[in-house]
Amino acid sequence: MPTVENMWSFPKILLILVLMKSCTAAPATSGVPAVIDETDPELIGGYVEGDMIMNEGKNGWIDETLRWPNRIVYYYINSDFDQEHRNLILRGIKTLQANSCLLFKEATRDQPYYINVTSDGVGCSSEMGFRKGIQRLNLDKSQPGCFRPGTIMHEFLHALGFLHQQSTWNRDEYVHINVENIIEDTIPNFGKYSKDKVDNFGEEYDYGSIMHYKSDAFSKNGKPTIVPLIAGYEKLIGNRVALTRVETDPELTAGYTEGDMILNDDRNGMINETYRWPNHIVYYFINSYIDQEHRNHILRGIRILEANSCLTFKEATSDQPYYVNVTSEPGGCYSYVGYRNRVQQLNLQNYALDTGCFRLGTIVHEFLHALGFYHQQSTWNRDEYVRIDEENIQDGMEHNFNKYDKETVDNFDEEYDFGSVMHYNSKAFSKNDKMTIVPLVEGVEEFMGQRLRMSDADINKLNTMYRCPRKV
Ligand SMILES: *[C@@H]1O[C@H](CO)[C@@H](O)[C@H](O)[C@H]1NC(C)=O
Ligand SMILES: *[C@@H]1O[C@H](CO)[C@@H](O)[C@H](O)[C@H]1NC(C)=O
Ligand SMILES: *[C@@H]1O[C@H](CO)[C@@H](O)[C@H](O)[C@H]1NC(C)=O
After folding, report:
1. Which Gene Ontology BP terms does the record give (predicted)?
2. Using CA positions, which residue lies closest to atom 12 of ligand 3?
3. CATH assignment of 13-228, given 3.40.390.10, 2.40.50.140, 3.20.20.70, 3.40.50.1370?
């Protein structure tokens, strides 16, 4: 089911963002973005390059002082936005959040630095990078073009430290700038930055980036100002609909090392609706001894689930009768399966961020248990896809390889998913470093046990289980 969010999954620019913020990178799917063509309010602000407000000196991507500290981006959306515009802004923010390790937080009164999202300026514009103070990002309400999802993200990506794609140091190898077609006083918008200022983070020049200008940007005569040197890219450049995606994932490795312990006090599957959270609301409580850094990482995991479904996660108040009690005790990472109509524990043993129980994928994995999912390899038809090698399993751990019958678990019309964030790796609970789960299909072993992202099928199943409305 192509939801808006998963249509935007793992764009190249966000892979760059991931690299820039030293997150764990996500694997990719393929797809070609569509093109939108209309007059562009990004270009009318009159700032450097139209929508970018540059402060003292030139600021490149490389300068780390222009990155948001602790991967947390604070924002304030002015009250002159109505609910509809506000929701569109939040949706853009959620998409960026779901595709990176950044956490966006609404600024409180005493927050010294944040993005002030305003509507009283001209067009759509943003200050470049982290400015250590209150920095403006303007989305003009009277300009529908500013509220294209891609444009909202485009402006936030400026605030996160990205210049335009065609400003990069090696752009002349990919595009030709037709100076004779450019409105004279906008020629400075086509400047480029040197290699010591901007970095492509190992990515190819990206014609389909949402940070690329359209081919007729600032044209005085309707003729192209930016001509791709490779035929066929004219229509791609300047897209503000979908983010571009990477075709290969450089960091996709199975890294599952911890025993994932599920407390099955009784056997409950996904089909029985008693085990689904009522009203699409999941209450949670993060114990106060969990430090701010780890708390934020748990919240990042929660935001990924929110952005990819119709579920809302709410912090439990003291009178809330049922909620997920997030603890951080020794003993690994584990959760009850499904909604229990009482306080139910979800444990994430303390690890450094992005390791062990505090890998984002593992946090998501444990919450997916709490939402009603067993492991992928527990499903009724798994024997058509994998062989369980009993002789390699540690003694006493065989129960982890149980499967559930068709009446208990449902695959929600999805194929068996070797790349599910709910799949064990092939050597889970192995006593001799040999495979305990042998895939019957070639070439999937490296995906098994990945904890980098929810797969498309994971997202679809979650949305089907909770009957989320289709977004597209
Ligand atoms: C945001 O910027 C606008 C326009 O400059 C200003 O009027 C407003 O007070 C600012 N709000 C906050 C909360 O910073
Ligand atoms: C669902 O689970 C509840 C609680 O265990 C049980 O009482 C009920 O009979 C189950 N329903 C079905 C259809 O199995
Ligand atoms: C959460 O669970 C832990 C461990 O069972 C328990 O000590 C703690 O009191 C619980 N906290 C809340 C708020 O439910």
Report:
1. proteolysis
2. 325
3. 3.40.390.10
